[in-house]
């Protein structure tokens, strides 16, 4: 447990301003004082070159493995094996510098049950902000969702997941890649339905995340007032204009597509999934470039757990994809920390007095080269160093 630390360099505050010779004191897992220069006597120096906030991965599936056929695996796995899997996956995020994840759906709400039951030891898992997912019975995501068709059924499902401690509801505005028989660009919820369901979620105190690839689905989700839109692969200038006026945050998960497309095992995947992802990848890349150019509010996820997309170090790859899409390193780092934390309201996300002491200590400076995110010296979670 750290009560005080001194760093040679740290990126401070919501703007992540670089500062040299930074000290901070920590109590009950929160940063209680912070400054540069001499400060209180006797503060030990940390060996890392640079301290940044822990990364915030806004889109994961802790109960999925990231193997070749996660749909089949999810339908067949037993509860004990699933619990072991999600604990191992949670620890991989922590080891790769991710101190908060938002889980956007698990078979039989396994993640909600695990979090509610305290089944993920605090030193072995990042902070988990968990959603319950709701899909139509034959729709995208049906294998990790409760099923509903009518507004009344959705409302019943929302009440059930709220009772399990969910802070978010995950909806599917369009079809997707990894569920058989659905089309990524096709609308899966009518505009009136997604509007009613989003309002019901908000009334129950839950935020709403919408999976949306196709532009109609993206537009329906924005107009429904959802809090985040996941993937946004077929974004057009019309939705960009709507988003600029809304309070909705985009969550890019491009790394999930890139990992699949570049996997040397991709030919072993379900052929329908492979053909869908190959057709869809160029659109998702272009959509991210468009969102970056328009400076839309952007947070970052990995969709870890989906096909050929295992947990761990996806945020590092995503940083490079964001950079290639036109974001400078400082903006990438803010998107992966501050912006995600704002979306989730998780009390961490940047280094300042009153924030949680979730700190990623690196051996090189990510403002100079985002590859530094791989050079992890230590991860600190709520003031405690994470074991190897
Ligand atoms: Zn997902």
The assigned CATH architecture of the largest domain is Alpha-Beta Barrel
Which descriptor suits the 3D outline? globular
User: What compounds sit in this structure?
Assistant: zinc ion
Number of helices: 11
Q: Could you state the order of secondary-structure elements as H and E? A: EEEEEHHEHEEHEHEHEHEHHEHHEEE
Mean pLDDT over all positions: 94
CATH class identity of the largest domain: Alpha Beta
| Helicity level | 25-40%
Radius of gyration: 20 Å
Largest sheet, in brief, is: 9 strands, parallel
Stretches where pLDDT is under 50 for at least 5 consecutive residues are none
What's the SSE blueprint?
Elements lengths: L3 E9 L4 E11 L2 E7 L13 E4 L1 E6 L9 H7 L2 H17 L2 E6 L6 H7 L10 E9 L10 E2 L3 H13 L4 E5 L18 H13 L3 E6 L2 H10 L3 E4 L5 H8 L4 E4 L1 H9 L8 H23 L4 E3 L13 H11 L4 H16 L14 E4 L13 E6 L2 E2 L3
Parallel strand pairs: 5-6, 6-7, 7-8, 7-9, 9-10, 10-11, 11-12, 12-13
Antiparallel strand pairs: 1-2, 2-3, 4-14, 14-15, 15-16
The structure holds zinc ion.
